[in-house]
Amino acid sequence: AAVRAVVGLAYKEAAASAPDALRHFLPIVVPVAFLGREDAEAAPRELFQQVWDDAAGSTQAGVRVYAGELAALIKEALLAPAWALRRMAAKAAWAWVGAM
Length: 100
Hints:
Blueprint: H1 2-17, H2 19-23, H3 26-36, H4 42-56, H5 59-65, H6 67-78, H7 83-99
Helix pairs in contact: 1-4, 3-4, 3-6, 4-5, 6-7
């Protein structure tokens, strides 16, 4: 959980201090933030929610724009050996379907 919180904080700070530079990485950042919003731990979940809100706008818009990237990341996470990641992926898949 601590590593996920650090990643979330890094994304959040990059978005705040260098939004133009981060824009090129949105196809990577946005799906990770979408998945991270489902973390069981509050600290990383809240950080990734902030990143998602800043980068994607609305849930429907973000899901529509990054549908392919989200599907690929969710599929990869569902196959991960770590239960925490698979749990996050299942919840993200549910949220993704609900937003479509």
